[in-house]
Write a structure and sequence with these properties.
13-stranded mixed beta sheet; single chain; 11% helix; 820 residues; Immunoglobulin-like; 9 helices
Length: 820
């Protein structure tokens, strides 16, 4: 029975494979044409030719058909065919557009392209909102290629990238396909269910190709390409583009205007290329637009090209998108990548009957075994046939993937990588058992060495073990840290064990304990590196420490989508520390270190507080409103939704302290959000507030300490989580407080308009910060900064001029930082 049904299945599949119209598409110069849209007239059954001009159009029944071949820059061809046997061979030649200028009257007073664009802009919102809902079949294929890849980057071997590189270190490093069903409903509800996913060389992999990631709509004011790029028909597009009517041609009875668009300034975040507009309908017929990475503020990208083709849906008087090609080039550190993502939309239904609960926060899901489809399945559903390069890549990588997953192969690779080298003494050593997903790491003692005034030089080493069960989505991590102070001659060690139960709600348990030196501010606003440099070279020992012996248990879980709870219970023994060294590398200022007392810099050699024990309980709820997510079979990926803020509610309680006055309660909250303001940049804010109960005489360790900065260096990428010039402990409080941080990055909106300055590629950033405490004068900061500073593609520096004010006293300063 099994054999008979299997045989019938293969016979059925072979019939499906032969049931098609196929052929080659060329131009009059006998050149093949890639990505030509091919579809049956008055239907949404269609496909595209591949890079070699080959196409296969799924046709299951014999009969008469009109096949339409549509390609930007060429005359649309309609071929009437009668199919008596399948497959049906249909090779065609497309002729270039016969562009005419006699369809319009060219006036010296008015640019005819402006009239067309103005009418299109006036109808932009009508088309944006015309279709209230639809479903569609979606196909996507992505391919990434590398040329002349380096052997090493920063001393680390690059390898053959999964077998994709040949002897010239060039080749395909990523190839994948996706078949899915997408659903849309106004105003912005979008859902995708992936039916099949294929990754070359990984028969268990899931493709990264998703419809939501390439849903570029030119009827919107901006196109989101990591940065906002202005559409040629945006409501304010005339401020950014110049337009030239190249000519006109007819698509059936529709007159199509071919318009060249050019940015008014080379540094504007705007496209160059061609946009096709339907006369009278004022709809987009197609686009072929290009933008550079410099224009997008993405220096790693050299160039990105978008090609869209639209087909007329007579019953809706609408031009839906039927195909899209995205070409790109990017590179850095000797890695040069080019590639493309090809998509096809078909079987539109503009009158879907959605269930009441059709749309929720799940934006992407996978059907069972979607990544297990065999080659026969893909031959039946793939609308864009593979090129020779792609066929070869699948064959090679799929044939060797069994070998590369075998225990003997992985053990041989591990044996080579696990060999101890002299350089491992300086850089650290890693041992791995890849087949069992087990990894053991020993960090570099040299790189883990820092300096502070209470320990002196203090080398430190981490030893960590990690293993995971990919099928269950669980993982186990064990980590120890050993630290020794050469000046205070004390050895300290900590250990933690963390277990992730699954990767869906991500319940997480951590048990930790030991003894360590820690800053009074548990957020540790001064990194070990910054403190070492500040101390050794400038004699500014801003970081203040105490000794903490502790045991802690933490548990965290997502109770429902967007709502995560986290609770900890801990015991701490706190002991004061004093400076034990006056060592310095440069002593140009001829001064001494301040004491380790955060409240009295002259209190040298005297403990800053009384040693004590305390138990702590804390719990927090993190609520991410409107959180979207992707559902994989064994994991959940949460996606940030910039339309809504996130809210954190927190409660802390100290109890059973060795000194009764140190028992207290604290409640707090935080609300934060980051979002784009059309083409005018990105705005972010972070508001924190809290209050203490029965905390009049608590230990200074438990005060609310704010993230200050006296080093004039900001290594924290999140500028809305710290002050720029505030002293670290002068404003600490055990009463009510509110702190506010906000900044706006104009992303080139202003500086791109200034001659000469616009060539630098800098981004203007304005910021404001404030702290309000009960019965105290407010502290405030205003800043103006430049981001995206650097040379060529290396642009990660930021420079801010900051002016602070407290109690009528102002302070000015320059802050250097990082910006990515």
């Amino acid at each position: 029975m099994v054999k008979i049904t299997t045989l019938f299945f293969f016979i059925f599949i072979s019939i499906q494979l032969s049931a098609q119209v196929k052929g080659t598409i060329k131009n009059s110069k006998n050149e093949t044409l890639p990505f030509v849209s091919v579809y049956i007239e008055n239907t949404s059954t269609g496909t595209s030719s591949n890079e070699q001009g080959l196409y296969e159009l799924p046709v299951l029944d014999k009969g008469n058909y009109t096949v339409v071949f549509q390609y930007l820059g060429y005359v649309t061809l309609k071929k009437e065919i009668e199919i008596n046997t399948l497959p049906f061979q249909l090779d065609v030649i497309l002729n270039e557009e016969s562009i005419q200028l006699n369809e319009v009257t060219i006036s010296s007073k008015e640019n005819p392209a402006i009239r067309i664009i103005k009418n299109t802009i006036e109808n932009r919102k009508r088309y944006l909102n015309k279709i209230t809902a639809y479903t569609s079949d979606f196909y996507s294929k992505g391919i990434f290629r590398i040329k002349n890849a380096p052997d090493k980057i920063f001393g680390q071997k690059v390898g053959d990238l999964g077998g994709g590189l040949d002897s010239t270190r060039s080749g395909v490093v990523y190839l994948s396909e996706t078949v899915s069903k997408i659903s849309f409903k106004q105003p912005n509800l979008f859902k995708e269910k992936i039916l099949a996913s294929k990754v070359s060389g990984n028969n268990s992999g899931f493709s990264f190709n998703q419809a939501s990631e390439v849903n570029f709509n030119f009827y919107k004011n901006t196109i989101d390409l990591e940065s906002k790029v202005i559409s040629p028909i945006a409501s304010y597009a005339l401020n950014y583009y110049t337009y030239k009517l190249i000519g006109t041609f007819y698509e059936g009875t529709h007159l199509i205007n071919k318009i060249e668009v050019t940015p008014k300034k080379k540094t504007d975040n705007a496209f160059s290329g061609i946009i096709y507009i339907v006369e009278d309908d004022w709809a987009i017929y197609g686009v072929n637009l290009t933008i550079t990475g410099a224009q997008m503020g993405q220096p790693m990208i050299e160039e990105l090209n978008l090609k869209h083709s639209y087909s007329y849906a007579k019953n809706k008087n609408y031009w839906p998108l039927i195909s899209q090609q995205i070409y790109f080039k990017f590179g850095m550190l000797g890695i040069n990548v080019d590639g493309q993502i090809s998509t096809a939309y078909s079987n539109y239904n503009f009158n879907p009957q959605f269930k009441e609960n059709e749309f929720n926060n799940e934006i992407l899901s996978f059907v069972e075994n979607s990544n297990k489809k065999d080659s026969l399945y893909w031959e039946t559903v793939r609308p864009i046939i593979l090129t020779k390069e792609e066929v070869t890549d699948y064959k090679i990588k799929d044939s060797i993937q069994v070998l590369k997953k075998s225990k003997s192969y992985l053990d041989s690779i591990d044996k080579k990588d696990n060999k101890f080298k002299i350089s491992d003494i300086l850089m650290g050593y890693s041992y791995k058992n890849t087949y069992k997903n087990q990894y053991l790491d020993f960090s570099s003692v040299l790189l883990g060495t820092s300096f502070n005034t209470v320990q002196g030089w203090n080398p430190s080493m981490d030893i960590s073990y990690y293993t995971s069960d990919k099928d269950a989505g669980s993982s186990l991590s064990v980590k120890t840290n050993v630290n020794y102070g050469l000046s205070d001659k004390k050895l300290r060690a900590t250990a933690s064990l963390s277990y992730l139960f699954n990767s869906i709600s991500k319940p997480y348990l951590q048990v930790s304990g030991g003894k360590k030196v820690t800053q009074f501010n548990q957020n540790e606003p001064i990194s070990g590196l910054i403190n070492s440099v500040s101390t050794l070279f400038f004699e500014e020992n801003y970081a203040k420490y105490y000794d903490k012996t502790y045991a802690k248990i933490l548990f965290s879980d997502e109770l429902s989508n967007g709502v995560r709870m986290q609770s900890t219970l801990s015991y701490e023994k706190r002991s004061p520390l004093v400076n034990t060294t006056d060592y310095v590398l440069l002593n140009d200022k001829q001064k001494t270190y301040t004491s380790n007392d955060p409240l009295n810099e002259n209190n040298n050699g005297i403990p800053s507080f009384e040693a004590h024990n305390v138990y702590q309980f804390s719990t927090a709820a993190i609520i991410r409103f409107g959180q979207k997510y992707i559902s994989y079979p064994n994991r959940k990926i949460n996606k940030y939704n910039s339309d809504y803020p996130s809210l954190t509610l927190m409660y802390n309680q100290n109890f059973a302290s060795s000194k009764e006055a140190y028992n207290f309660g604290e409640v707090g909250m935080r609300i934060q959000q980051a979002f784009d303001i059309d083409n005018k940049g990105a705005f972010s804010y972070n508001v924190k507030a809290g209050t203490f109960f029965e905390a009049d005489d608590i230990a200074f360790v438990d005060y609310k300490h704010f993230n200050g900065n006296q080093t004039h260096v900001n290594m924290n990428y999140d500028y809305t989580n710290a002050f720029n010039l505030m002293p670290y402990y002068n404003f600490s409080t055990n009463q009510s407080y509110v702190e506010f941080h906000a900044e706006h990055n104009f992303k080139g909106y202003l500086l791109n308009k200034l001659p000469l300055i616009n060539k630098l590629g800098f981004e203007l950033v304005l910021g404001a910060k404030s702290l309000i405490r009960k019965d105290k004068k407010p502290y405030s900061e205003l800043s103006v900064g430049l981001g995206n500073i650097g040379i060529g593609k290396l642009r990660f520096l930021r420079l801010d001029y900051v002016k602070s004010n407290y109690n009528g006293v102002s302070q000015n300063g320059i802050v250097f930082g990082l910006s990515f």
